[in-house]
Amino acid sequence: MALVHNIENGEARISEAMPGDYFALLKPRVMSLVVFTAFVGMILAPGGINPLIAAIAILAIAVGAGASGALNMWYDADIDAVMTRTAKRPIPSGRVTRGEALAFGLTLSVLSVLTLGTLTNWIAGGLLAFTIFFYAVIYTMWLKRSTPQNIVIGGAAGAFPPMIGWAAASGTISLESVVLFLIIFLWTPPHFWALALFKLRDYDMANVPMLPNVAGERHTKLQILAYSLVLAVVAAAPWPMGLAGPVYGLIAIGLGANFVRHAISVWRMEDGDATMVPAKKLFRFSLYYLATLFAVLLGERLFEIAHSAQVA
């Protein structure tokens, strides 16, 4: 037990938070995706980067992502308490206070931005600072509770990491890094709306205006299909752009076709379907889809680097 005195509602108390509770505030599963996509962006960027600097930069990006998660949990503690998916998080379960989460998130935000900007460049540092601000303020404090398009606009926060990694290595923002951004940006709505379809009651209870709650299931399913079609096209773009090779291109096309197939199944699903099986399948596949795309991008580039080293 951490013996740290805090003031909560005007009364002194001793924190019962364990190290694992603070780690949970970082949203480690989300953070792992951020780290991976940022690393891919860093490896794909031209010019290269010192391995030690790269490792510290990735750590700084990870900490920045975790800081965003902590600030999100601080502000959304009331929502988290009524949703089954989030009720066991550190704040609603009473293991961490909102004040502790806020201080933790702000401290990590400052440290991560200063570290990344100082060690790499301030384009990368500025992008990380903007990402934290966008997620914590624009998405969490404003969009999430005010518009059913919250996840569309707010999804930009999760799409910035490959751009940050690219900027850390190259000091630039290029068309290629924007395409990496767009892949995640376009993937986010069908991924989260599929979740929202089978977690509809949770969002109703929390009074969060997710698209299915506001516009209905039919409109949501149509939007999922539309975004999936655009995503399938954009995700294949790194191949003709020269950012990726034919292996990636063929895999991206195959995965994109499968993503659209799942989206069509969701579109055909009866409104009010209690099982929501197609939506659950799309949600699970979407996780595999994004991870595979970036894994293939990384694998191709590492193979290219290894081959060039052998030739040299």
UniProtKB/TrEMBL annotation:
Membrane topology classification: Multi-pass membrane protein
Cellular localization per UniProt: Cell membrane
Signal peptide: none
Pathway(s) of this molecule: Porphyrin-containing compound metabolism; heme O biosynthesis; heme O from protoheme: step 1/1
EC number assigned by the record: 2.5.1.141
PROSITE patterns documented for this protein: UBIA
InterPro entries (alphabetical): Protohaem_IX_farnesylTrfase (IPR006369), UbiA_prenyltransferase (IPR000537), UbiA_prenylTrfase_CS (IPR030470), UbiA_sf (IPR044878)
Top-level taxon in the UniProt lineage: Bacteria
Enzyme class: transferase
Catalytic activity of the protein: heme b + (2E,6E)-farnesyl diphosphate + H2O = Fe(II)-heme o + diphosphate
Gene Ontology BP, a term: heme O biosynthetic process
Pfam families per record: UbiA
Subcellular location, principal: membrane
TM segment ranges: 30-49, 55-75, 96-116, 122-143, 150-173, 179-201, 222-241, 247-264, 285-303
Keyword entries, A-Z: Cell membrane, Heme biosynthesis, Membrane, Transferase, Transmembrane, Transmembrane helix
Biological function: Converts heme B (protoheme IX) to heme O by substitution of the vinyl group on carbon 2 of heme B porphyrin ring with a hydroxyethyl farnesyl side group.
Similarity comment: Belongs to the UbiA prenyltransferase family. Protoheme IX farnesyltransferase subfamily.
PANTHER family in UniProt: 4-HYDROXYBENZOATE SOLANESYLTRANSFERASE (PTHR43448:SF7), PROTOHEME IX FARNESYLTRANSFERASE, MITOCHONDRIAL (PTHR43448)
UniProt miscellaneous comment: Carbon 2 of the heme B porphyrin ring is defined according to the Fischer nomenclature.
Descriptive protein name: Protoheme IX farnesyltransferase
